[in-house]
Design a protein that fits this description.
heterodimer, A: 388 residues, alpha/beta, Rossmann fold, seven-stranded mixed sheet, B: alpha+beta, Alpha-Beta Plaits, 2 domains, globular, binds iron/sulfur cluster
C-alpha cells in the first residue's frame, strides 16, 4: 500500500533512497542537502537498509568513492549542493565517462561567493557539460518519484549515465508538503537488481578502468557518451510510463501547461513553475492565451519537444535561475538553439530571476506576461526583482 | 561485445562504436599497449660490456629489458621500451647508450 505523509523534499529523497536500498552511499553534508545523508544515516543506524554508508572527509572524496563503487558494480547514491558540487567538479566527468550510473540528489543552492545558502541553479548549471543527465523537479513529490525513476534511467544498458535529480534548495528541500510514497516492495520491484556491464568485482573477467586513452581513441569514447545521451532522450518516456503504471503519476521530460494554443509562453524550471502556472490560469480566465513550459530534463536537452511546445507562440520568455557571466544564461541559450534548429524565429526575452534565493512572486510572472503581450522584447537579459 | 574479451587479443577498433565502452581495458593488463610509440631516444645495448647485473632489468618501468632462462640479459623489447633512459643512466658498465630515434628513421620506413 502506498502511504501519504507530510514531509520535506529532502526527506522525500531520503525515503526513496531507503526504499531503493543502494549498495553504497558515500556522502559529505552541505546545506541545504544535509538532511538527505543525515536522514539516510538514521536508516543505516536503525538497520533499515543494507547500504555500506561511507563517511568521508570532503565532497571530492564522496564522489570519488561513489565512482569507484559504481565501477565495482554497486548501485550508488549520494547528495550535495553548491560549493560541495563545485568541489566534485573534477570527478563528475570521470563518473560520466566510466558510465557510473550514480543517482545524485542535487539540492540547488547558489555557488558562493558571496556565501548565501539559498536557492539558485548556479551549482548544477556549472556541471551541464559533465556527461550527466539533469532532471529538475518542481516539488517534493516529484523529487521522490524522480529518484526512483532515475535508477532505471541511469542503469539502463543503453544509457549507463549518472543522473542529477535536482530540487530547489529550501523552497522544495525544506518545505513540508504531502508526499505519496509507494510501498517498499513496489519500489524494490521497480528498480530491480543492478546488472553491471563490466564490474571490477567480477574477478573472473578482469577489466581495467581509467587507463590512458591517447589521441587515437579519446574522441571515439566521447562520441559513445553522446550516443548514450541520445538514447536517454529516446528511452526516457518508456521509463516514465512504466513508473506511471506502478504509481499513477506520469512525468514527461517537458511539462507543457496550457501551451497547445498559447501565444505567450513562459519557460521555466523547478519550483517557480508553480507560480507561473497559477498566473497562466488567472490570465486564461481573462482570455489571454498564456502558457507555461517547464523543462524537467535539461540534459539531454529535448530540442524537438521544446520547439514543438513553443510552435504557436507569438512571444516567449525564458526564466533562468543562474547567470552565465559575460555570456547567455543556460536555459535561454538552449531554447533559442531549439527554435533556430526548427527554423522558428519567434521573439525570445531572457530573464534572470531568483539568484541567491530571491523570491519569485505572482506579480513578477504577471509583469513578464505583460512584457510579452506588449511585445517588449529586447536583446539584453532582464533581471526580475533586482533593486534598480 | 562478449564478456570474456581480452584487449591484447582485440583487433584495433576501426569505428567509434567498436572502442570498448568507458575506455575499459579487458584482461586487466597493459600487454597490448605499445609504449614503444612514445620513444624519442632508443637504448642500444652492448652484449660485450654487459655483465647481467640486472639493475636495468629491475629498474626499467616497462619491463622492456629481456632475459633468457638463465637470467642473462638478451636485449631490449622495442614494443614496450618508451625510451626513458633509466637503464642507460643506471648501468654500472656503460653498456647502454641512448641514440635519437631520428638515427633510425630510414630503417623504420619513417611513419
Ligand atoms: S645494468 Fe648494464 S650491466 Fe647491468 S644488466 Fe643492464 S646493461 Fe647489463
Ligand atoms: S630506456 Fe627506459 S623503457 Fe627503455 S629499456 Fe631503458 S629503462 Fe626500459
Amino acid at each position: 500500500m502506498s502511504r501519504r505523509e507530510i514531509i520535506s523534499g529532502n526527506w522525500a529523497f531520503a525515503e526513496a533512497m531507503r526504499q531503493i536500498n543502494p549498495d553504497v552511499v558515500a556522502a559529505y553534508p552541505i546545506t541545504p542537502s544535509t538532511d538527505i545523508p543525515m536522514k539516510f544515516s538514521e536508516f543505516v543506524a536503525d538497520g533499515k537498509v543494507d547500504t555500506n554508508f561511507v563517511t568521508v572527509e570532503s565532497e571530492h572524496s564522496a564522489i570519488t568513492a561513489c565512482v569507484t563503487a559504481a565501477a565495482a558494480g554497486a548501485r550508488v547514491m549520494t547528495a550535495s549542493s553548491a560549493n560541495g558540487v563545485g568541489l566534485m567538479h573534477e570527478i563528475f566527468p570521470i563518473a560520466g565517462f566510466f558510465r557510473s550510473p550514480i543517482v545524485f540528489g542535487l539540492v540547488n543552492r547558489s555557488l558562493g561567493a558571496p556565501i548565501n545558502i539559498h536557492c539558485d541553479h548556479s551549482d548544477s548549471m556549472g556541471e551541464r557539460d559533465a556527461g550527466w543527465i539533469h532532471l529538475y523537479c518542481e516539488d517534493a513529490q516529484e523529487a521522490y518519484d524522480t529518484a526512483v525513476m532515475a535508477v532505471r534511467l541511469a542503469e539502463h544498458d543503453n544509457i549507463l549515465t549518472p543522473v542529477f535529480v535536482c530540487q530547489d534548495g529550501f523552497i522544495t528541500s525544506h518545505g513540508f508538503e504531502p508526499v505519496e510514497m509507494l510501498d517498499d516492495e513496489t519500489v524494490k520491484r521497480f528498480v530491480g537488481e543492478r546488472n553491471a556491464r563490466y564490474p571490477l568485482l567480477d574477478v573472473k573477467n578482469p577489466v581495467t578502468y581509467g587507463s590512458f586513452a591517447s589521441t587515437e581513441y579519446y574522441f571515439e569514447i566521447k562520441r559513445q557518451q553522446v550516443e548514450a545521451m541520445e538514447n536517454a532522450l529516446k528511452l526516457y518516456d518508456g521509463v516514465a510510463r512504466e513508473y506511471e503504471a506502478v504509481s499513477g503519476r506520469y512525468y514527461p521530460m517537458l511539462d507543457a501547461y496550457r501551451t497547445e494554443d498559447a501565444e505567450f509562453v513562459v519557460v521555466v524550471m523547478s519550483s517557480a513553475a508553480g507560480v507561473v502556472k497559477d498566473v497562466v490560469d488567472e490570465l486564461r480566465d481573462k482570455g489571454v492565451k498564456a502558457g507555461c513550459l517547464r523543462i524537467r530534463m535539461f540534459r539531454p536537452f529535448p530540442f524537438d519537444g521544446v520547439a514543438k511546445a513553443l510552435s504557436h507562440a507569438k512571444a516567449i520568455a525564458v526564466l533562468d535561475r543562474s547567470l552565465s557571466l559575460g555570456g547567455t544564461a543556460p536555459v535561454v541559450s538552449e531554447v533559442r538553439s531549439a527554435l533556430y534548429r526548427a527554423s522558428a524565429l519567434i521573439p525570445v526575452q531572457s530573464y534572470v530571476f531568483g539568484l541567491g534565493g530571491r523570491d519569485f512572486f505572482p506579480q513578477n510572472a504577471r509583469d513578464i506576461f505583460t512584457d510579452l503581450e506588449k511585445g517588449q522584447i529586447v536583446g539584453e537579459e532582464r533581471y526580475i526583482g533586482l533593486l534598480e | 561485445m562478449t564478456d570474456k574479451m581480452n584487449s591484447a587479443a582485440m583487433a584495433k577498433p576501426k569505428k567509434w562504436r567498436d572502442v570498448p565502452m568507458a575506455g575499459v581495458a579487458f584482461g586487466a593488463t597493459a600487454e597490448a599497449v605499445e609504449t614503444g610509440q612514445w620513444r624519442s631516444i632508443r637504448p642500444l645495448w652492448d652484449s660485450e660490456k654487459c655483465i647481467s647485473c640486472l639493475i636495468c632489468w629491475n629498474q626499467c618501468p616497462d619491463r622492456a629489458v629481456t632475459t633468457d632462462e638463465s637470467g642473462k640479459v638478451t636485449g631490449i623489447d622495442e614494443f614496450y621500451c618508451k625510451g626513458c633512459g633509466i637503464c642507460a643512466h643506471l648501468c654500472p658498465k656503460d653498456a647502454i647508450e641512448m641514440k635519437p630515434e631520428t638515427d633510425f628513421a630510414a630503417a623504420r620506413g619513417d611513419r
